[in-house]
Amino acid sequence: MSSNSIETLRKETLEANLEIVRQGLVLYTFGNASGISRADGVIAIKPSGVAYEKLRPEDMVLTDLEGKVLEGWARPSSDLPTHVALYKAFPNIGGVVHTHSEFATAWAQARKPIPCLGTTHADYFHGPVPVTAALEPHEIESEYERNTGEVICRTFANLNPDAVPAVLVASHAPFCWGPTPADAAYIAAILEYVARMAYYTIRLSAEIPPVGRQLHDKHYLRKHGSGAYYGQPRKD
Ligand SMILES: [Zn+2]
Known about the structure:
This protein has 8 helices and 7 strands; from the N terminus they run H-E-E-E-E-H-E-H-H-H-H-E-E-H-H. The protein has helices spanning 3-22, 80-89, 102-110, 119-124, 137-141, 144-155, 181-204, 213-223; strands spanning 31-37, 42-45, 61-63, 69-71, 95-99, 166-168, 174-178. The protein has a 7-stranded antiparallel sheet with strand order 4-3-2-1-5-7-6, sandwiched between helices. Strand 3 (61-63) and strand 4 form a beta hairpin. Zinc ion (ZN) binds at residues 98, 100, 172-173. Zinc ion (ZN) binds next to loops.
C-alpha cells in the first residue's frame, strides 16, 4: 500500500469524524465515519468508543476489505461490518458515515421513509430516503452489524445508491455515504436538515403530498449528472 494515499485516507477519515461532531450530529460517541482506498484495498475507520476530541489520524484503524484489522492500537468501531457491506455492494462510494442525529433517527424509529416534500430534499436525494425492513430475530442474534449492512443492501435492490446516498435503518438510525468521507459527512448533515424540515412540514400540514416528479427531477438533475448546470463547472 502506498504510504501517501494511506496517510491521506487516515486524515480524511479523521476529518469526517470531526465534522459530524461539529455539525451537531453526534452525542458522545454515537457515530462513526470511515473511508476506503480501493486502489490499496484498505478501509480506515474510527476506533470504538474513543472520545472524538482526542482522535488523531494515527488512531484510525486500518482494515482490509473484509474488515480484518491491518493496523491500529484500538478495536475498530463495532459498526465496521456494516461499513464493509456497503463498500462491497456500492462500488462508487468512498466514505460511509453513521450517526444517531435526532430527526433522521426519529424517522428511522418511526420506520417511515422521508418523503421528498421540497426542493432542498430534491437537490440531494433523487427519491424518498428509504427505511429498511426490521431485522429478523436470527439476524439480531448473530452477525448483527453485518446483517444491518445486508438489510441496507436489500433495500437498494431497485434503487441507485449514488442518487439516494442515505438510508434509515429501521428502529436504529441513518447511514450515509458518498464519493469521499467528506461527502458522506456532508450528506449526514443535509439528511438531518431535510429530516427536520420534513417533520415540521408534516406537523403543519399532515396531508401534504410529496413534490411532483417534474420539480423533483428539475432540482436533482440540475445539480447531478450530464445535464447539471447548477454552480460552477467542475475542473477535475
Ligand atoms: Zn448506531
